[in-house]
Design a protein that fits this description.
The chain is mainly alpha-helical. The protein has one domain: Orthogonal Bundle (Helix Hairpins). It is built from two helices and no strands. α1 runs antiparallel to α2. It is rod-shaped, with a radius of gyration of 34 Å. The chain starts with 5 loop residues before the first helix and ends with a helix.
Length: 145
Amino acid sequence: MEFRFQPLLNLRKHRENNCQTRLKEEQVKLMRADKELARWERTTRRQEEIMKNLGVGRIEPTLLYCASNFLTFAREKKDEAYTRKVQQEKQVEKAREILIAARKETKTLERLKERFHEREYRAGLYLEQKILDEIGVNLFHRKEE
């Protein structure tokens, strides 16, 4: 006898695999967001050093103005990158929760399948024992005759 929920189990396994793939994709996006944030932090620190050096010695107002504008731009980009990183962390967590739910559903059906196979195995053993008992009884009665 075949496990009647096998198509559903196959579907759940497929869904779980899709959820794993989605989680990996979201984690890759998070790594990219982390790298982007780190890049903007380095740029901001480098620009702050440049600004500090421009304030020493002969001061060029045009250079100071341009450097100040770029520093503001870099800080804004760093803030945007941080916001994207936080949003991506939420997406990763959401994908992880979906995967956990899918795994629970799959595990439930797998346990049902294991129980089904165990019952089938025990039923087969019982039937085999019954047949062997019948053979034994028949052999015993033939010896008496």
